[in-house]
Amino acid sequence: MNTSGNTYVVRRRAGRAAGVRIPEAGRHLRVAVLDGGYPDPAYRALVGVGDPGLAHDHHVLYTLETFGPVFAGAGFELRPLDWWDAPGTFHRRAWDPEDGPVDRSHQLEHRNAAWRWGEGPLGFISLVLDAVKPG
Questions:
Q1: Which residues contact 10 (CB under 8 A, 6 or more apart)?
Q2: Number of structural domains the chain divides into
Q3: What is the pTM of this model?
């Protein structure tokens, strides 16, 4: 079934398939997706949205501006943690991997080790945010 024209339907089906439970008031749901703001052409080629190659299952690249409303519209407060802005600047907010690890983050991705030491570029990274249930 082709649902690419209706991203709302895709998101609902994906949430159900993943067994996503809505957190209790005051709790958060940590989510990470491919970051469409990441400016590296090699990254864009690798994730290849719509490409039949290595990443054939990638259907969309989200940005904070396009992914945030998915949760804000459902009544969540957003706390962005790792993200690229439209001009290509990386932003990060302190967060504890013990509260929900994300492998492709500035903290845990092995390709970011040199960057963490101040000796290299930032590698592949996901858009990471906490969606907080108000309470």
A1: 3, 4, 59
A2: 1
A3: 0.73
